[in-house]
Amino acid sequence: MHSQDGDEEVFEIVDFTTASEWEVFTAAVEEAIQGWGLAGGGRSIPPPPSSSVSASSQWREQKQIINYSDFPFELSYHCPLETGSSEESSNHGRADVLSPGDFGEEESYEDSLPPSLAYIHDCSNCFPNRAHCVARWYGLREFIIAAPASSSCSVAPSKARLLLSALTLAANNTGCEVAMLVQVLKPAERVFMGSVTAPGLRATLDMIHFRCSPPVECQDYEGLVELISDKVGIERLRLEPVSSIRFTYIINEWPEEACWAQTPPDLDLELGDLGDLGYSGLKQLPFGLLYDPVRELHLSAAWPRLPHGSFEDSLLRFTLDPCDAPCWTAKVLPPAGGVEGPEVAGLLGEHLMELLHACRDERSVPELLGSAFSDHGAQGGRDVSSALDRLTEHAVPSLGAVLLGPHRHRAAGNKRGSTVQQGPLSEEVIAAILNFLFPEEYSTDDDNDSAYPTTFARVPHWQPHVQHLPDEHPLKDVCVGLKTAPAEGLVWRLSVVCCHALHSLGGLPAVAHLLYEVLLELRFRWDNCLVVPGVSPAFEEPPPPDLASCLLQQKLQMLNCCIAHRERRERGTAAASVAAAAAGSAAAGSAGTSLLGFDEDEFFDCVSDDDEEKDADSSKESNDGLMSWDEPEGRVRRCGELRLLHSRRRLYVPATQDPAPCTEDKLEQQAELLLRLGDTDEGSAMRARLMSSSLLSDMESFKAANPGCVLADFVRWYSPRDWVPVAPGEDLVGVEVVDGHRLSDRMTIPGNLWQEVWKGSLPVPARRQKRLFDDAREAESALQWLASLGPGALCRHLLPVLLHAACCRTALEPHLYTLPSTAVWGQTSAYQSLEALPPLQHSESLPALLCLLTQRLGRLSRQPCDLNKYRDVIEQLSAVERCLGRAMSLRHKLLPQEARNVEPKQKTLDNKRTSEVDGSSMTEARRPSDEEHRKSKTSSDEISQGTSDVPASRQASSEQTRRPSRAGNASKHSSHGEEKFKVGLEDSDDAMEGVESNLGSQFTVLQGSDDTQDDKDGKDAPKDGKDDSAVLLSLISSLLSSGEVDVEGAAKGVAGQALLRLFERSIEEQERQGSLPRYSMEQRAATAPSARRSLAEQTRSRLGYPGAREYIVRVRAELPSRTSRLMPHRLYATFLKGDFRVAGLFTQDATFS
Amino acid sequence: MQDSECITTLKILIVGESGVGKSSLLLRFTDDTFDPEQSATIGVDFKVKTFTVEGNCTKLAIWDTAGQERFRTLTPSYYRGGQGVIMVYDVTNRHTFSKLDMWLSEVDTYATKPNLVRMLVGNKIDKPGREVSREEGLAFARRHAMLFIEASAKTQDGVQCAFEELVQKILQTPGLWEVDNRSQGGGFSVSREDTAAQQSSCGGYCSLV
């Protein structure tokens, strides 16, 4: 504290220059306390924990770094985040705080307690699930901690006292009644000591922590009471403590049958087996976890309020049976890295991350593979030969060349590979991959499943009835916004293959090799006029680049445009036929005549038939190439009923050149060019000139198609709104008026660009005009662009596509549809930041979360590539993957019957499907609207099948009528699930007609297996099996969603029974293995209470030994002397294996000491 | 102009049927002039203007497009990266109003920023013979969540106001314009580190076992 040094000077100089480090520190702490608004006693009490929300209660932290000398300490303030209105909370606030009546005395001490100590005798939430350990151990609701800022430093106890005195002084100076604590020793030991000062009292908080077994005298409850009685100096009998006790039982070694993990995909195996083109491993993204994602199950049995004498817990006698405890809570722990470490990613997450890392690589293909793989070498030789080829080759590739093309090329490519240099990928692997990427289009092989679908969408083909997934692809709507590539197209496949190449086939060099081979293939296809497959729908004209897709896809589309254009051009010039007017669209010259015919039909009753005949004749003439200069050419169709203003002939829409297809990077360049012209008038004029090339082309085509036309004719077709009606009383001097219309003012301005271009244009049909699109140049530029990509850059382009594929892959998991979105958050959010994702309503389902993720991906895909943001998406997808893994593991553990159905060992795939049926059944239970929807569908099916004579509207009764007939086998299926299942079967039977007809027999398999199981497990299976599975599934989903779950009904409830069974199985297994001595309940009951046994032996129950025991002992006693007021005290103790901790909070009366 | 003081450059598009007065609106805004004989735009044109709204200096690059149908194959490429779009119709011509749906879908298809600000402007309110009432314009704008104003490039009514509103709205829309600046700064990674630090230093939120 700064002391005011004596003399009052005139200028009131206060000198702090001599303040010690300790004083400076104290002042800084005071400032922090003031800053957080904790000074003074009159603050409102933080709201109490209401037990309903306690499990998920969040804590708020405020932090500040304060230096003591040059050593940084972190001062943090903690309080619960529940910011509900404080008035409300004060009403029913301390419902469960021990009242003096609990101690059998009248006097009240509560009023004298500061708010920060108000809850130390609160029994309602004595074992919070997630709280700062200080809150757990001392029962505090708000506190300030000073800890070394770096976690590697430790604070010696003597230093800690110095710090604590500074904190206490600061609290005194500011009137702050919040508990002040100092972290002692190493941070990992989590030892805190502290004090609370308030008017009339002072509390000390102290802790003992041993990394070994506790001393004999405090191994049990009795010992703790002894300890507390020593501390307060009152004999035990007068204490009458009220306690809370909790035992936690742990399964960390799962019995073999309950263990769950996926077998890793074996790419080597698949690739080694080259005979049957079935590299399914390469074609799909992997999904799932290779380890059991549930490491430990914790079951805690708690007695929140045990008056003294109502139980015994000592070495002599132990009467607490966890199966009788009123509260059970359960939680699961993820594996590896501990709770706070990041979890190991699943297969999908791992693969995605690898691609993300590869994106940062800037090396080129030759840098990775050596100069033999440089594109120049390949290109040089190739270009010369193909140039010669082109001279000699027939313009139309022969059918044989087309058919043999890929083979020929692949053979050539292989030869090159073996003679020059061996890449990281073997010939066979490359051949397999290329076959997958560029499948034989003309293959007659029916079982060649590599062929691309004939149409493309943004989501893959969806088979709801086979896989028992929702009727529509859940991502159908959101995937539209993705700037990626069509699902299951070439780019999509390339992304998947690259992902595998990175992960399993040799990393980045493998990708480089792959890129090199793909480039060779593309160049080959351009050279030989072969359309690249999997880029756009088959059997259609290649569309111009789709700007809503990624650049890579656009480039390939561009290449296809060039290939198609070139083929048409070469065919056109070679055959000199009219068939292909070079306009490039379907609206070519020959189409014009046919369309004309159509028009004639339509307008047969037109007035001037003669005129039309003449028109038609002349156009035919022109097609025969006999026309003179003013003969019409390149007509497409009539433009309505319009006639030329002067000749009164019909006005025809000409065949025009399509605008050149363009990829977005080229468009950007063009826009850039226009921008560079500046916004001056000259710039504008220049721009207009640059842009007028297409106007000129259109005008020339128009002139060719409509001999004798004038600008006004052109305007009536091209810009009809510039052909304006004459207003009455208008000055019409020098204006040409036809049918009461005239050209608009802006078109008649002398010297305007439209007129100029019109004057400068000649009648030239589109196919004889200068090309607006140069296919050779564009193709070369697209290929060059691809060749300039390094493998890292390729990965950057593929990343959004791969993530798109990953989202769709995740959507295929049936368990996705059984879980709420909170299941992902529950375990992860506490330790990992998923903040970047906007919060969902808690009621929403996991698919909704996936949709949200996909939407986010959509936004990212349209922005410049930001790898950090993509990393977030990947982490979130990983979280979903892990969550699904956990769900499967828990189902396997807690629903043993069903799980046995899934067991892949001797059962077939069919049975696996039946388990998926269950998955969808739960979806319905949770989503009433969907259920409604399906119900109606179901009932209609039922009627058609005649399986039920009940009308559609009476669904409920129809269920009942059916139930008896299937009694006993429904133990694990909800009724809706059964129906859905049935519908699924019927539909798929209908659809597939025996192709997969064993679906039908599946049903009987399911029934049969269930029957036998019921016989077998007859005594275990509860009567009301349907409800049971619902309870268990909701238990699973809440285990995933929140850290700790209340088990309804404790040991007596359905969930409790299931957990109990799991524990018993685990104990059996351990007994079998000899890691646990055999022991039966009968034995225990028979043991005489007087027989002295160890406490460990005493505490053995049906759940095994408790892995942790926690005791809270609350007493009231006069402190520091017999004349003081009755003050509350609290002692907390945990007994873990090799870890023992006692934390005590003792208050002293400062008024009557 | 003083580029350095501008907080950002915004790209704004003007679209609509031919002859509704897109170029005139632009000219009125940038040069405060009106030319009844404004020639028909060919392809696209643009103007740049530095504009200050509520003390925020912004540089506007306004792209003016041709309304003719044939040009519509050329112009969409210039929609890329636009933060705001002004859709103009002629209040004295119902046809231009009824084509708005088509223009909307055009914008939705080609605009790359999903949350770009859309403004509906009914032009030529100085002209007699109105065919589209203010209420109809309002209703359309409301249905499609757009800004709405009626204006006249000739009498300059509402023109300045329209651009002002649009720019303000763009500046208020999060994520619409900061992206450019942020992509250089890498602000995102900073927040990641923060959360990491939080995790490590606390260590107190533990479970029992």
From TrEMBL, chain A:
Domain Rab3GAP catalytic subunit conserved residue range list: 629-786
Extent of Basic and acidic residues compositional bias: 900-916, 924-940, 1015-1027
Domain Rab3GAP catalytic subunit C-terminal: 1026-1152
GO terms assigned for molecular function: GTPase activator activity
Keywords: Cytoplasm, Endoplasmic reticulum, Golgi apparatus, GTPase activation
InterPro entries from the UniProt entry: Rab3GAP1 (IPR045700), Rab3GAP1_C (IPR045698), Rab3GAP1_conserved (IPR026147)
The UniProt record lists the keyword Cytoplasm: yes
Subcellular location: Cytoplasm; Endoplasmic reticulum; Golgi apparatus, cis-Golgi network
Positions of the UniProt region annotated as Disordered: 82-110, 609-631, 895-980, 1004-1027, 1071-1100
Biased composition (Polar residues): 941-959
Any GO CC annotation of this UniProt entry: Golgi apparatus
Family the entry assigns: Belongs to the Rab3-GAP catalytic subunit family.
PANTHER family named in the record: RAB3 GTPASE-ACTIVATING PROTEIN CATALYTIC SUBUNIT (PTHR21422)
UniProt-recorded name of the protein: Rab3 GTPase-activating protein catalytic subunit
Organism (species): Hyalella azteca
From TrEMBL, chain B:
Pfam families reported in the protein's UniProt record: Ras (PF00071)
EC number: 3.6.5.2
Keyword Lipid metabolism set for record: no
GO terms, molecular function: G protein activity; GTP binding
Gene Ontology biological-process annotations: protein transport
InterPro entries: P-loop_NTPase (IPR027417), Rab (IPR050227), Sigma_54_int_dom_ATP-bd_1 (IPR025662), Small_GTP-bd (IPR005225), Small_GTPase (IPR001806)
Enzymatic reactions: GTP + H2O = GDP + phosphate + H(+)
CDD domains, A to Z: Rab18
Keyword field: GTP-binding, Hydrolase, Lipoprotein, Nucleotide-binding, Prenylation, Protein transport, Transport
Record bears the keyword DNA repair: no
Gene3D superfamilies tied to this protein: P-loop containing nucleotide triphosphate hydrolases
Domain of life: Eukaryota
UniProt family annotation: Belongs to the small GTPase superfamily. Rab family.
Name this protein carries in UniProt: small monomeric GTPase
Species whose genome carries this gene: Hyalella azteca (Amphipod)
